Amino acid sequence: MWKQTAGGVCAPKGFRANGIHCGIRKNKIKKDLALIVADVRCATACVYTKNLVKGAPILVTQKHVADGYARAVIVNSGNANTCNPDGAEIAEGMCALVERHTGVARGDVVVASTGVIGQKLSLDPIEAGMEALVGGLGADAQNSAAAAEAIMTTDTVRKEVSYSFELGGKECRIGGICKGVGMICPNMATMLMFVTTDAAISPAMLQRALSDDVPDSVNMLTVDGDTSTNDTLCLMASGLAGNEEITEENEDYRTFCAALHAVTTEFCAMLAADGEGATRLIVCKVSGVCSKEDARLAAKAVVSSNLVKAMIFGADANAGRVMCALGYSGAKLNMSNASVRFCSAAGDLLTCENGMCVEFSEELAKAVLSEKRIEIDVVFRDGEGCATAWGCDLTYDYVKINGDYRT
Amino acid sequence: MWKQTAGGVCAPKGFRANGIHCGIRKNKIKKDLALIVADVRCATACVYTKNLVKGAPILVTQKHVADGYARAVIVNSGNANTCNPDGAEIAEGMCALVERHTGVARGDVVVASTGVIGQKLSLDPIEAGMEALVGGLGADAQNSAAAAEAIMTTDTVRKEVSYSFELGGKECRIGGICKGVGMICPNMATMLMFVTTDAAISPAMLQRALSDDVPDSVNMLTVDGDTSTNDTLCLMASGLAGNEEITEENEDYRTFCAALHAVTTEFCAMLAADGEGATRLIVCKVSGVCSKEDARLAAKAVVSSNLVKAMIFGADANAGRVMCALGYSGAKLNMSNASVRFCSAAGDLLTCENGMCVEFSEELAKAVLSEKRIEIDVVFRDGEGCATAWGCDLTYDYVKINGDYRT
Fold it and tell me: Which site among A41, A381, B44, B52 is 20 to 30 Å from B142 CA-CA?
């Protein structure tokens, strides 16, 4: 239904991007300012952190996209611009700089910041960098890559995805960049995701598609359970693909939603795999549960458990910890029906059946759990509810990175 | 109102205890079997884990204390007897051994197990050890110490507390032993707490006192957020102090509750300070919130946050992480009223005021956070709700202990 293409956030028609080092960060080889500009006003949908403490850029963005449209995104890394008395003023100032240098009205600018919380963000380096930032805008793969690099914090790899798909015979594209090695707390790695498409879709349907997608994509992702103050997922549709505009829940809408889900879930796996200090990606699939919501709770609890995470780091097939996490997940589960399997490229290992632990080969267990991608498959026999969650192992390096991040 | 005494679980009149190595564990210098026997049938109240997966000993204990009375407690460490098909049979077998060797009816025996989940527990070493275990029963301080040692898993210190207090002019005592370096998952350190008293109190009032106590004591304790399958808190009252039996919520009841709370909260601090791999105790106090429940949610979220825990390990005063945890705690909070202070023996450090981060001395910050006991004081101006939660830092050793516990 969709196939992978190149170009990241610039793959869809009508989007240019760039990323530079402007000086918010002291480290000169690390880019810290990104810009995405669309050729036309785009239908725009956003979702934000549910944290009561919201970064000032979120409050400004909410206002700017209230009419369902935007044309540019400016993002800095190195400073979250959160819990600062002048935060909103600075965020508005960033939008005004975009207006001055690109002509895009400030009210059509999405703004985001990521980095340390509670430290003043100065407009000076941003202002000084605008000319180079705007001058370097382009629609090539390296432009998307530069933007993807500029939004990274503790990420170790840049994250881009793009797909093509068809709507009514017209080729459409969807692509994006993201950062944030988990739903991690403000001062290091809040989740930011910017997705563009050239499909024509109304703002209302775009928001519906996004809001329906996140419960099974980014909301099922965790590195450490700390929901950031700055999480933002912004989806912009230029409409330049030439398809008939999607204005209702028709076949085209479902095709678009499937392509969107391919992008957001691939990003989830990329973010979890790059989780702070992580050595392994953990994907937990729960199925056969009475309701979808119970399946989500159960899968999320397994990948959130520090003990499961530490066990995967140690490649120790301690299935009791999975049973324990399921048991306290809050999901309605018939535990005496549970079976638990650890699966990877090295094989499948059954560890629990009918709610009881079973004997297994320690040799196979070690082989299965030594791979980079570990799937924990939990199957019940009580219904159709299923869900997938993404997480990573808990390592010495997670503690190291977070024990002394700020200073 | 109450004062510290010696004797632990044997401090109150009418209780004898012992602990031995019987062979459940391979390590011969680690005791693994404990017994507490009362001279009389005791009013007995229990609370258990809310995990859907419950250890077999819990199911047996629930049945045995259904009438509100018990006379003995048998506990093994090294094996949780959970997720085993024959678990209930083995737990009943342990109670039958107590009956055969002490004469206490098996239906008056509380049974608990802690250790690895999903591994068969054999009665053989327990049976072989019963004669020595019962032969060594006594009411001296070293008897309580032996029992406290026998229930330890990854605990590094044994945990005993005892107090005396007065009811109607009669001296009463309350004491206990506990283990479990957090509300940690089955295969290493489930929380077990056994508290005895010689106060006379009816089973109904004893259960009420216990059930009212736990929301502000053990339920506010966390090491890693993983709720165990075997958590058990058992409170037994011999009535041998000679006070008028407490049968209603009178002054004596409130005095008893205060003494009980002194024991359970002291245990919480001891357990958190000995949290797996922990180097520092974190005590978070939240006050000035609209409701008690909101204060509990907020305080618990702060001590549960991996990022706050890693920050305390690194002695890095990153107050934004506290603000972030408060913000996602689920509590109804007026964040623009929040002030956050880090306090320890080295001084007080104001880090946030009116919801915004403030500047502080990095030197003082390092000094304050380098102590063994760190208090995080969060004050709002919205009501009378307050709560305290206990936790510990997240360290390399936590990952080490849990990366390879089973094998």
Answer: B44
Q: Could you tell me which residues are beta bridge partners of residue A378?
A: A286, A340
* Dihedral sign, Cα of residue A398, residue A399, residue A402, residue A407: negative
Largest distance between two CA atoms of chain A: 68
pLDDT > 90 fraction of chain B, expressed in percent and rounded: 53
Q: Which two tokens stand for residue B341?
A: 């202070």
Q: How far apart are CA A234 and CA A61, in angstroms?
A: 10
Q: What is the rounded distance in angstroms from the CA atom of residue B173 to the CA atom of residue B8?
A: 10
- Which residues, at least 6 apart from A365, have a Cβ–Cβ distance to it below 8 Å? A315, A317, A342, A349, A351
Give me the torsion for CA of A315, A321, A322, A325, rounded to 10°.
Answer: -140
CA dihedral B90, B95, B97, B98 (to 10 degrees): 150
Residues B277 and B273: their CA atoms lie apart, in Å, by 10
Q: How far apart are CA A64 and CA A98, in angstroms?
A: 13
**Active-site entry in B44, B102, B154, B190:** B190
Q: Which domains does chain B carry? A: 2-273 (3.60.70.12), 281-403 (3.10.20.340)
Q: Are B17 and B138 in contact (CB under 8 A)?
A: yes
Return the pLDDT at A181: 67
Q: If you compute the radius of gyration of chain A from its CA atoms, what whole number of angstroms results? A: 21
Would you tell me how many other CB atoms lie within 10 Å of the CB of residue B116? 20
**CA distances (Å), origin A284, targets A122, A309, A340:** 42, 12, 10
CA torsion, ordered B376, B380, B385, B386, to nearest 10 deg: 10
Query: What value does the mean pLDDT of chain A take?
Result: 88
pLDDT digits (tens, 9 = 90+) for A130-177: 999 999 999 999 999 999 999 988 788 888 989 999 998 989 999 888
Q: Which residue has the tokens 């059509």?
A: A108
Summarised one tens digit per residue, pLDDT across range A53-108 is 788 998 999 999 999 999 999 999 999 888 888 999 999 999 999 999 999 999 99
Q: Is ipTM > 0.85 here?
A: no
Could you tell me whether strands A385-392 and B339-344 are parallel, antiparallel, or unpaired per DSSP bridges? Answer: unpaired
Task: Determine the residue of chain A that is closest to B84 in CA distance.
Answer: A356
What type of residue sits at position A249? E
Which A-chain residues 324-383 have CB contacts (< 8 A) with chain B?
A: 324-328, 333, 335, 352, 355-357, 362
Residue whose tokens read 């709770």: A297
Query: Does A50 contact B313 at a Cβ distance shorter than 8 Å?
Result: no
Contact A351/A360 with Cβ under 8 angstroms? yes
A-chain residues within 8 Å CB-CB of B280? none
**B377 and B285 Cβ atoms separated by less than 8 Å:** yes
* Nearest CB to A318 within list B327, B356, B406: B406
Give the tens place of pLDDT for each residue, A274-290. 878 889 999 999 999 99
For residue A388, indicate whether it is catalytic.
no
Residue range B294-306: mean pLDDT, rounded:
91
Residue pair A197/A12 in contact (Cβ under 8 Å)? The answer is yes
Q: How many residues does chain A have?
A: 407
Whether B185 has a pLDDT exceeding 70, the answer reads no
Q: Which residues of A touch B277 (CB under 8 A)?
A: none
CB atoms under 10 Å from CB of B86, counted, come to 14
User: Could you give the CA distance from residue A241 to residue A230 in angstroms, rounded to a whole number?
Assistant: 31
